[in-house]
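It is worth pausing here to work through a concrete case rather than discussing structure prediction in the abstract. The textbook approach is simple: state the sequence, then state the predicted structure, then interpret. We follow exactly that order.
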Amino acid sequence: MNPRVELINTGTELLLGSVVNTHLKFLAEALFPLGLRIERQVTVPDGAAIADALRETFGRTDIVLVTGGLGPTTDDLTRDVVAEMLGLEMIHDASVMTSIEERFIRRGLTIGDRVRLQALRPRESAVLRNEHGTAPGLHLSPKRLHSGVVSPHLFLLPGPPRELKPMFTDSVVPILRDLAPNGPFELKRNYRVAGLGESHVEELVGAELLALGLELGYCARPGEVDVRLIGSPDALDRAAGILLEKLGRHIVSSDERSLENVVIDLLANRSETLATAESCTGGHVADRLTNVPGASQVFIAGFVTYANESKTRELRVDPALIEKHGAVSSQVAAAMAHGALRVTEASHALATTGIAGPGGGSADKPVGTVYVALASKSGVAKVQRLQFPTDRETFKFLASQAALDLVRRSLAPEPAATARS
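Step two, the predicted structure:
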C-alpha cells in the first residue's frame, strides 16, 4: 500500500478570495503517476490555524504537503509553527543565505533584515532549493514526539506557483518516488463528452463501466461532461470500447483536451483554416480558439458583427435577407458564415446569431434561441437551431460550445469500431 497524502494550503488571501488556489490541481496531477493521491485538503489562514491543521494529520497520514508562509513578511509563519510543533531549534543555513545574496546581487537589490530570516530553518530539516525565489522549501522526515505520536513526512513549499511547481518537480518528486516504490497501481483516463447531460451519460454507460471494477466519476459543466475512469490498463481498454459504442461522436477527447483544442488540432492536421462571424456570442468563439497554443496556424480572423449594419458592412449580408427573415434566422446565420468565408478566403467559416435575453424574444424565436452555421469551400453551409434559455453569460458559452462542436463533428473522422471482449 502506498503512503497516504494530505495537503494544507496556508494563506489568509486564499480564504478572502483575493487569490485563486491552483495548488490542488497541479499537485494532484503530479502525484497520480507516482501512485499517490491526495486524500484530504484543507485551506487555513496564516497563524495558529496552521498548527491546528497539522496536528490533525499527525498519526493519520504519511505525507503532508504544506504550501505558503515561507516568505519574509510577518504573516509568513509556517517554518516557525512547524519548528515549535516538532520541538526543533531554528538554525541559520549559510548555503541558503549565499543563494539569497547571489539572487539580490544579480537583481541589483539590497537585502533587508526580514529577507535574511528566510535563511533560518528548523534543525533536522533538509533544504529544497528554490531557483525562482528566495524562500527555500523544506523537507522534515518523520519524528516521534513526546506524546508518542509520529509526525508524517512534511514538505513545506512556497506559495507562488512559479516557485512551487519547479521545486516540486525537481526536488520533491524524486523523494516521493522513493517513498512510493510500488508506483501507480492504476491508470486514469478522462473522456470529455459534448451534447449530452450528465444523467443521460450515466444511463448509457454507467452500469457497464462499473461492472468492469473501475472507479467511475462524472464532472458536469455547461455543454459537456467529463467521464473519469481509474483502474487497470485492461479494464480501461475494455471501457474504451463501451464508451465508443454508446457515446460515439459525442466523445470530444480521451486525453483531457478541450473542445477548442481538438478543433485547432483537427484543422492543423488537415492543413485547413477557420474564420468566425459572431453576433450573440460577442467574440467568445474566437476567444476560446485563440487561447489554444498553435491557433495562429489555422485561425484567420474573427468578426463580431453585433449590429445588423455591421453584418452588411463587414460580411456583405444582404439587408433584404435580414428584413425578410430577421437577424436571428438560419438564412442570416448561413449568410454570415458565407460572408466570412469570402472575405477571409479561409477553408471554413463559423457563424453565430441568437437572442441572449432577457428581452427580445418572440413566440417563434423565444429568448435562448441561437443559430450556428458552418460554411466550407467544399459545400453548402450546415445550420443548426438550438435553444439555451439561461442567463446571458451561460448562453454565450453554450452557443460557443455548440458552434465549436459543429466544426468538430464536421471535420473529425467517424470513430472506428472497437471490438469488445
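Step three, interpretation. Residues 417-421 have pLDDT under 50 and may be disordered. Residues 187 and 222 are 27 Å apart (CA to CA).
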